[in-house]
Amino acid sequence: MQLSDFDYPLPERLIAQYPPAVRGSSRLLHVNGSTLTDGQFADFATQLNAGDVLVFNDTRVIKARLFGEKASGGKIEALIERVLDEHTALAHIRASKSPKPGSRLLFAERWQAEMLERQGELFKLRFLASEPLFDILEQAGKLPLPPYIERSAAGEDDERYQTVYAREKGAVAAPTAGLHFTEDMLTQLQQRGVKLAYVTLHVGAGTFQPVRVDNIADHKMHSEIYQVPESTRALIAAAQAQGHQVVSVGTTSLRALESAASSGELQAGYGETDIFITPGYRFRVVDRLLTNFHLPKSTLLMLVSAFAGYDEIQAAYQYAVQQEYRFFSYGDAMLLQRKN
What we know:
Elements: E1 27-32, E2 35-40, E3 53-57, E4 59-61, E5 65-70, E6 75-83, E7 88-95, E8 104-107, E9 111-119, E10 122-127, H1 133-140, H2 155-160, E11 168-171, H3 183-191, E12 195-201, E13 224-228, H4 230-241, E14 246-249, H5 251-260, E15 269-273, E16 288-292, H6 299-308, H7 310-322, E17 333-337
Helix pairs in contact: 6-7
């Protein structure tokens, strides 16, 4: 398939620049084949049955954007892509001239780092302070809002661009389907007998990188780290054995589960994935997907087209534009039924 197959017209006014006034007050479009039904996310719990397993990504967004200058002069901006250990990270760097190995960087007029080496498009940095890197980021970093949100992060975003169940630090972008959930909604789900399970996939900045090839088969996905706990594997196996459904909250949870089932059966453990899901992919784990609306020509639009059907997604997005749903990270949600 060609990149142009995944384009669609989107009025700029439909790109949500702020979260809804109240968490969980978004709209919810149900997509079941060619049937489209408008709803409210507040009623999401009624769509699941006792015994179903709802799988969340519990990654926590870090304040990954740092501003500073090179020791040789010149401003610099770093976006931490992956924390490797307490003092070392891989980062994207924007500067008039890229720093060379051995050069020193100063962030927030306080924190020094040494550029160790290039790894493809990324720069390996070693922070020279004794404090753990996560502590430095919390003090000196800024929350990295997506590029289509045309404003700087504000105090409200520290809470709203984070799920209520976020706990494992490491993402540079939120698993946005989870932003709709409140503690009350989680309680409602459990009272209905829905099993709540968790995976971790640290979302990288590559999720926003445009596809630069016409033939999508030529695209190379960015790599992300994930973990599937044994408790989650066991819950899913039991649900499947009893004929219940596995519902993924977001494309990141789905990518973690499908990556962990690449052998044909879901396995617990850590891994690194660059799985690229396009129409024709055979899903092994997930039956339903809760997700937000995705960018034109994006790999995530390709994923949902594989899941719910290419024609079905094209029709759903056209309908969502007509009905003025809110798009992208702070926007409304869709509940998709797997086509096959």
